[in-house]
Amino acid sequence: MNPECPQCTGPAPLDDLSRRAFLSRFGMGLGSVALASMLNPARAFAGTPPMDHGVLGAPQFAPKAKRVIYLFMSGGPSQMETFDYKPVLNQRNGEPLPDSVRQGQRLTGMSANQSILPLAGSKFGFAQHGQAGAWISELLPHTAKIADDLCIVRSLFTEAINHDPAITFLQTGSQQSGRPSIGAWLSYGLGSGNANLPSFVVLITKGKGDQPIYSRLWGNAFLPARHQGVQFRAGKDPVLFLGNPEGVDAGSRRMLLDRLRALHEHQRDATGDTALDARIEQYEMAYRMQTSVPEVNDLSGEPDRVYEEYGPDSRKPGTFAANCLLARRLAERGVKFIQLYHRGWDQHGDLPAQIGIQCRETDQPAAALVTDLKRRGLLDDTLVIWGGEFGRTSYSQGPLTADNYGRDHHPRCFSMWMAGGGARPGHVHGETDDFSYNIAKDSVHVHDFHATMLAMLGIDHEQLTYKFQGRRFRLTDVHGKVVRALMA
Predict the structure, then answer these.
(1) pLDDT tens per residue across span 13-48
(2) Whether this model's pTM surpasses 0.70
(3) 411: nearest Cα among 175, 60, 124, 141
(4) Domain 67-241+303-486 belongs to what topology?
(5) What are the pLDDT digits (tens) for 95-124?
(6) Residues 164, 445: Cα–Cα separation, whole Å
(7) End-to-end CA distance of the chain
(8) What does the domain layout of the chain look like in residue ranges?
(9) Whole-angstrom Cα distance, residue 97 to residue 157?
(10) Is residue 311 left, alpha or beta, with left meaning phi > 0 and alpha meaning psi from -120 to 50?
């Protein structure tokens, strides 16, 4: 079995040393040349490494998307303040949540002991936008302008009611840690679109410390280590430990890597441990990134009109706006999966003020990203996703006053949007009941969302698997169906 492709079976290959000796003796040494090119591609091809096309080699059917930019709003944005207009809540503001609506569903420990669960109408106005007449909150004026590019899903649901398992579920397909993230699965399946950049990059808005964001959310788990996400940070060193120490120049680094490669190849030949090849490639990738990462992170060449489009925060490294602009640059350069995290959407209290801040930070940049990609001809094959891990309750957690309220976690229904990359533009999918508490039509489970996303990338979600501990794992576990209504 090949450790890099557990699906590949057959007789074990001869060890590399024996094969090299065999090829050297036959065919006038041409076999040795071919073998050298496989074992040391960077050296054989004058520093130009071959492209990694992943275990699938190519999409399994014609893809609509070649890459994904996932804008993850960590904390759970309230659907009733964004995309799920519920005037009944305003009409019945302050009344108890009807038992016929709750249906005995579990609550979190934060509101389970409240003597009353008072319905809370949104303080924000809604209007219809685009040809589909999508209801969008006044908090999102820039998003409203691109309504005809959006596929708004109002009927997502999840199984987790607390942040950690819910975020882990959206990012890995399992509520329990230890599974590969979405980006790792795509890197494993489809490889990279740029040999000088990681196939999976993570950007986190700085200064938003309300919730922990764990590196396992972009981890590789049991997939080979090269498929894990690489976090880019704001500042002098975008990738930790990438730069050379003081006194070490590029020539010295190259010589060190060449000697290290020779030692690793010697150990691999002696032990047959092919994992050492992956380690060698990681060192080589890091060396190439010493040039490619500073180039892609240098936004100084962007024209003023682009900064104006993304908003004033786009000139401040590490903000959500700057990360959206950087995401476009990464997409241009062939990065397969670009994950943005923006924390702070967990509004158990003071929701009107807090969600206003969140929307001001994210609305304009997210809309600008879609517009910018479209103008450059990239939106057609770039899937942009916006959403969090669950929704919020239609009742107020804690006191309900004339101008203030909070909302607890709610897994039964929440909203998300997609744009480009095969998503159906100008479409609103699914309905919730009058209280935005239960789904009334066209529900979409987390596994369905993942299956549909993979289909847009040309992947059958049941076929992208990895055998580990005797079981074939996949992103959608043993569930999931493609929701064709979400696809163009």
Answers:
(1) 434 444 444 444 444 434 433 333 334 443 443 455
(2) yes
(3) 175
(4) Alkaline Phosphatase, subunit A (3.40.720)
(5) 999 999 999 999 999 999 999 999 999 999
(6) 18
(7) 39
(8) 67-241+303-486
(9) 20
(10) left
